[in-house]
Design goal:
The structure is a single chain. The protein is α/β, with parallel strands linked by helices. The protein has a domain of 206 residues: Rossmann fold, CATH 3.40.50.1100. The protein contains 15 helices and 13 strands. The strands form three sheets. It has a six-stranded mixed β-sheet, sandwiched between helices. The protein has a four-stranded parallel β-sheet with strand order 8-7-6-9. A three-stranded antiparallel β-sheet has the order 2-1-3. Helix 4 links the parallel strand 6 and strand 7. The structure holds pyridoxal-5'-phosphate and zinc ion.
Amino acid sequence: MYRLTCVYCGEKYRPDEILYTCRKCGHLLAVEYDLSRVSIRPEVWRKRPLSVWRYRELLPVTIPPVTLQEGGTPLYHLKRIGEEIGVPKLYAKHEGMNPTGSFKDRGMTVGVSMALQLGKTTVACASTGNTSASLAAYAARAGIPAVVLLPSGKVALGKVAQALMHGARVISVRGNFDRALEMVQELCTSHGLYLLNSINPFRLEGQKTIGFETIDQLPGVPDRMVLPVGNAGNISAVYKGLLELKTLGLIDRLPMMTGIQAAGSSPVVRAIREGLAEVVPEESPETVATAIRIGAPVNGEKALEAIRKTGGTAAAVTDSEILAMQKDLARKEGIGVEPASAASVAGVRKLVDSGIIDPSECIVCVVTGHLLKDPETVIRQCESPTEIDADLPSLLSALQWS
Ligand SMILES: *Cc1c(COP(=O)(O)O)cnc(C)c1O
Ligand SMILES: [Zn+2]
């Protein structure tokens, strides 16, 4: 019902081959369904709960999946922030509401299920944090061991806590994410572990359901979808899924796919701005938004296509713009997200201000991870609690009430 296809040279591979890149040319692989043989009735989809598995006809898993009930995340109207920016139809899909607090769970429910389906018994990844938290949880759910490599000192506290508590073998690498990824790829090749970074084409299949859910919730196709971009897997996945719906005749157009990066870590933005054929890696990416602190995006070539084919764009936002939007989302909308997630909405503000986005558009921002993932960055931005003696006068005086 599906096979693996090289996105560059078109070479086809059997779906049960354990392969992450094309043997002929080294480029990325994608899961390709025979859409003429997929039968989908939207009314059947709508009877199932809103979740990754609502869309199982467009997923590669045939065994009972390893699941923690991922997906089905809320789509919020950003009324106040939308008014401020001047975009009345501004929405946020809160992926922080997934089981481990990020959209990575959508990828891992499919990826870890595929590991079992393919007969693999150990899984591994390199991670800026959320991938490791998610993999650790889904490996625990599946009852198999996980090995995760983290860039030393650059992973938010909540994410490390999750990976440790769910029982993964957590290795801290003295090097950045890009180096940790090279190492885990070598380890997987030499020792037969199943690699679940976003280079894994099956993981992206789960993540594409963000787009499916958005269309069911809105309902309809938004004019634009805006995502923070690190390894660029998520923006590519959402585009791929929506393209499948369009090929099936279930939607009639695609949203303009728009990627937002941090100014200190923005190779995709540069490739779009300068019209480059490929993403040129950055040596030392730096940003407070550690989830998108990535200099060599693995899915760069897929993301450039997603952005260019839909008439989208890419933009960079500074760390202070990211942190200001994190606070706005928290205080003006009640939506708690980690810094990388706020980048998408901060990007909309910037692109509207610079006249690139038409404010009458219907815009869905994907906010990717939960506030509690990175408590240290949060605490640094907020005033400390006021400590008082345990009596009412002290309380009133602290509140400056009389
Ligand atoms: C992984 C992650 C991203 C980046 O997604 P890519 O698919 O790597 O582009 C953004 N935000 C959060 C919170 C993440 O965990
Ligand atoms: Zn190829």
